[in-house]
Design brief:
heterodimer; A: 255 residues; alpha/beta; Rossmann fold; four-stranded antiparallel sheet; 12 strands; B: 486 residues; eleven-stranded mixed sheet; ten-stranded mixed sheet; 12 helices; globular
Chain lengths: 255, 486
């Protein structure tokens, strides 16, 4: 079954068009990688899919699990199973991780017509998911991302992903700013969450992350369009040769 | 015009949902005629059956008040107040016929406090026990747990009752912290004050339960002028809570109170307020004018006084709970969250007056402004010549929601001893779009996200409140901000 279907998506920020006709289909149970040079529109794509208010969709259609994604408010996209791991997770002073996660879980349960989660069940779930990304119990009393190291912030993103059990996870440059140990922890977390029903869209500049999270399909995004789609071998080729040859090919074709 | 009326009804319904204390109680209330002159003062004193010395106290204050102008220095736009168009005494306990009964409370009044979540029957009190003095308009209708407290020698009653039963204590301390000449509203209150609470904690006694006063304005066209006096004798401890609400009305109602606290050697007093007077509607119509003088005199060595306030209500707030640190080693604290929305105005803060040696004070103020509101922190740290080793730390943060509101900080320092250390920090911030988006992405809708972020911002102060109050305060902060972003 198709998890996500993006048709001819155009989007702009502050009047400047960034996405210029994206077409992309993601099947359930698959991992897609989106690679591309800086400024090609990778982060815009993840922000538009999750509904950041600064971006305006000017054309196109996105279907997520059979629903019109673009018509849903941000929180309902989340409730329907869309998760974004942020490149730069924001700090929320004074709001403990416990309070934040309890609110997030119970809002989702309310959306699904369920009663709030019992405290016992909640604590058990938190422990189970923390262990996945090796965060200790004290972490739950800290304010959301406040004073977290780069590695802790990314582990926190994967922790939240594990708790919310999304159908589609968008990992936006999750590898940026991570040392190799943190990268491994994060990747192991993501891999352990893989199910035949869930998909991931891994956005990255470098091949490095894809050594740990194996994609089924690799796309190259350039100037707001997908200019190449191939198997995992494409990532290796890009690592070796860079993006320039692909860009050149694309520009010659479009001349 | 029919549609218009219907729309108004809808708006009213919506805003009533936001201010859920906006109802009125239909109870027979004896209200004296509007207007204020010496006869009014005499009438109030007579109604309360007061001794001559107290009438003299009132008259002196009144004669001083009539010569005073309204203070203009606050960052507030206060419409002219017609002091002759207010009734200064309203008694909801007087029966239509026959003499006033002291034991029986009108069931309507009981029901009112029930509805406000303030049980007046001791068996219904919250676990752990909170003793309540319930004041409606000008009169204390009931004080609970008086007997239990009396067994420890603690006096907890309305100030009117204290004047009758403990005149020596009232006479010694009334006006000893806030002189009637202190300011315009203090003079007014001293002339016309009605019930508030009186607390005396004897030497060495730790008060076994929280004491609280709940103030309710009910009658139309009246003002409330309560007076509270707390005396903590040597080595005693008390935690005192204050709550307040009023009906939704188009008129502005005046509330001008005085709270005086005397803290003796090594005694400790915690005073917490959740102020939720009716703030007016979304167009700035109606609401309570809250002009209050609160001050503690830390007379004893190593005495401590801590003010914690959560201010979400009132159309206009003018309030500076202060500490006079007279005893050597005394410590004063002020923790405040002031939230203003729509057209509300608040000018609030504190004065820390260091007189004794090695006195310390801490000020944490968190302002939150939304809508078209104006929110100011005004604080004075004064260190006297003899206050060797005095220390103060002040932190004033402002959070802005939207671009039509204002946040202001007016810190004053007057340091006359070179050994003193006075620190002041201030920040102004906005809730960022990225913080909201992050919450939304995790499935938390806009209003809940704002509530979460604002409560996080105010956490340092909310943590100081007793448990039951903290929960109510958190809820209030969220509810008061509904529809601010969208």
């Amino acid at each position: 079954m198709e998890m996500l279907d993006i048709e001819n998506l155009h989007a702009e920020i502050a009047g400047k068009e960034i996405l210029k006709g994206i077409n992309l289909q993601i099947e359930a149970g698959t991992v897609h990688a989106i690679m591309g040079p800086n400024g090609s529109g990778k982060s815009t794509l993840s922000n538009v899919l999750s509904g950041h208010p600064a971006y305006t969709v000017t054309q196109g259609k996105v279907t997520f699990k059979g629903k019109d994604l673009l018509s849903l408010p941000v929180e309902n996209r989340s409730h329907e199973g869309l998760f974004m791991s942020f490149q730069y997770p924001v700090e929320i002073p004074g709001v403990s991780m416990t309070n934040f996660m309890r609110t997030a879980i119970n809002e989702k349960r309310r959306y699904l017509g369920l009663d709030p989660m019992s405290p016992t069940e909640f604590l058990k779930l938190m422990k189970e998911k923390r262990d996945l990304v090796k965060l200790d119990a004290k972490f739950m009393n800290r304010s959301v991302n406040e004073g977290f190291s780069g590695g802790e912030k990314k582990r926190n993103e994967i922790f939240q992903m594990a708790v919310l059990e999304p159908s589609l996870s968008i990992l936006d440059e999750t590898d940026s700013g991570l040392d190799i140990d943190a990268l491994r922890i994060v990747a192991e977390g993501v891999n352990s969450l893989k199910t035949p029903e869930s998909s991931a869209l891994v956005i990255t500049h470098y091949q490095r992350l894809l050594d740990y999270i194996k994609p089924d399909v690799v796309h190259v995004l350039y100037a707001g369009r997908i200019i190449r789609t191939a198997g995992p071998e494409l990532a290796l080729e890009l690592e070796e040769r860079g993006y320039d040859w692909l860009i050149k090919e694309f520009e010659e074709k479009n001349r | 015009m029919k549609t218009g009326d219907k729309d108004n009804g809808l708006v009213r319904e919506l805003s009533e949902e936001k201010y859920r204390f906006g109802f009125t109680t239909d109870v027979h209330t004896d209200i004296i005629d509007r207007g204020l002159d010496e006869n009014t003062v005499r009438l109030i004193s007579a109604r309360k059956g007061e001794p001559e010395w107290l009438l003299e106290f009132r008259l002196k204050a009144f004669r001083h008040w009539i010569q005073m102008p309204m203070p203009q220095w606050a960052h507030l736009d206060i419409p002219p107040i017609d002091y002759q168009n207010i009734s200064y005494y309203a008694d909801p306990t007087v029966k239509k016929e026959g003499p006033k009964s002291t034991d029986e409370i009108d069931p309507q009044v009981m029901k009112t406090f029930d509805k406000l979540g303030i049980p007046l029957e001791e068996r219904l009190a919250l676990s752990g026990g909170v003793a309540v003095d319930a004041v409606m308009d000008s009169v204390s209708v009931k004080t609970t747990f008086k007997q239990t407290l009396a067994e420890k020698g603690i006096i907890f009653c309305s100030i009117g009752e204290a004047v009758k039963n403990h005149p020596e204590l009232v006479r010694e301390y009334l006006g000893s912290v806030v002189n009637y000449r202190d300011n315009f509203f203090a003079a007014l209150n001293s002339a016309v004050f009605s019930d508030g609470s009186f607390v005396y904690i004897p030497k060495g006694v730790r008060c076994p339960m929280e004491l609280s006063t709940y103030f309710r304005i009910n009658a139309q066209g009246t003002g409330q002028f309560e007076r509270t006096l707390i005396v903590a004798d040597d080595d005693s401890y008390v935690s005192y809570l204050e709550g307040c609400t009023a009906p939704m009305r188009d008129e502005n109602q005046l509330h001008a109170a005085i709270v005086e606290i005397v803290v003796l050697d090594r005694a400790q007093v915690k005073y917490s307020t959740v102020q939720n007077w009716y703030p007016g509607d979304e167009n700035g119509r109606g609401g309570v004018y809250n002009f209050v003088t609160k001050r503690g005199l830390l007379r004893g060595v190593d005495s401590r006084l801590s003010w914690t306030q959560v201010e979400t209500g009132s159309a206009i707030t003018w309030k500076y709970p202060s500490c006079v640190l007279q005893g050597d080693g005394s410590q004063g604290e002020f923790y405040s969250v002031a939230l203003t929305n729509n057209w509300q105005q608040a000018d609030t803060g504190t004065k820390m007056i260091h007189l004794g040696k090695n006195t310390r004070s801490t000020v944490i103020s968190k302002g939150i402004s939304a809508g078209h509101s104006q929110n100011s922190y005004r604080g004075l740290v004064k260190v006297g010549r003899n206050a060797t080793g005095a220390r103060n730390y002040s932190q004033c943060d402002s959070l802005l929601l939207g671009s039509s509101c204002g946040a202001h900080t007016f810190p004053y320092m007057d340091v006359n001893n070179e050994t003193a250390v006075v620190e002041h920090e201030a920040t102004t911030s906005k809730i960022s779009e990225d913080q909201l988006f992050y919450c939304n992405q995790r499935g938390i809708p806009m209003e809940q996200a704002i509530g979460l972020i604002v409560n996080g911002y105010a956490k340092d102060v909310l943590n100081r409140l007793p448990m039951e109050f903290a929960v109510e305060a958190q809820r209030l902060l969220s509810v008061s901000l509904e529809n601010t972003v969208g």
